Amino acid sequence: MTKSPHSIGADQKVGLARKLMRGHRIRHLPVLRGGRLVGMISERDIYWIETLKDQEGDELLVSEAMSPSPYAVAPDAPLSEVVREMAEHKYGSAVVLNGAHVVGVFTTTDALAVLAALLAEKETA
């Protein structure tokens, strides 16, 4: 899980979201409005909105490209349930919320890292 993840405002430009993702080597950004989670934007969202609207990201708002109902979990949510839900619904990430505050992002890459550690542990046992 990425703790204290980067985020972006809903009224920011998609081009800024792309720049943040590339600069920090991440693929998902929680979208906030007034400090509250209102969506999630991914590299894939940016690709699709630019392709479908045939516009550059500097012309589009994050709110136009984001997924408005991201999968969100509590910090103490059982990992097995989070991963099962992500797999079942093909979610690329889960936003970790402590109350209304974004405290982390758990991605499929994080899930694979956990799986790799478990397999390595099993192989050395």
TrEMBL record:
InterPro entries: CBS_dom (IPR000644), CBS_dom_sf (IPR046342), Diverse_CBS-Domain (IPR051257). It comes from the Bacteria. Keywords: CBS domain. SMART domains: CBS. Residues 1-59, 66-121 form the CBS domain. Coiled coil: none annotated. This is CBS domain-containing protein. It comes from Sorangium cellulosum So0157-2.
